[in-house]
Write a structure and sequence with these properties.
It is a single chain. The chain is mainly α and about 70 residues long. The chain has a domain of about 30 residues. The protein is built from 3 helices and no strands. It is elongated, with a radius of gyration of 24 Å. It starts with a helix and ends in an 8-residue tail after the last helix. The model has no long low-confidence stretch (mean pLDDT about 85).
Length: about 70
């Protein structure tokens, strides 16, 4: 007799849990959403601006002293 879909899914999930795994739900941006492409362009422009300022940022980081700081 064949198992129902629910029984097979439950069996698979139990096997994964025994293997030390746990289920995680991920939410990702909907690439089909209106405005998605425009938001990508906006964020890309911001990254490009930051990259242009990378030399300044590198200089600031090089001159920063964290001596004596504890984690």
């Amino acid at each position: 007799m064949s198992q129902s879909v629910n029984e097979r899914v439950q069996k698979r999930r139990e096997a994964l849990r025994r293997a030390g795994l746990r289920p995680v739900q991920l939410w990702v941006p909907d690439t089909r959403a209106q405005g998605f492409a425009q938001e990508c362009l906006r964020q890309s422009a911001l990254v490009a601006q930051v990259l242009e300022e990378a030399d300044l940022q590198a200089s600031l980081e090089a001159s920063a002293s964290t001596e004596g700081w504890t984690a």
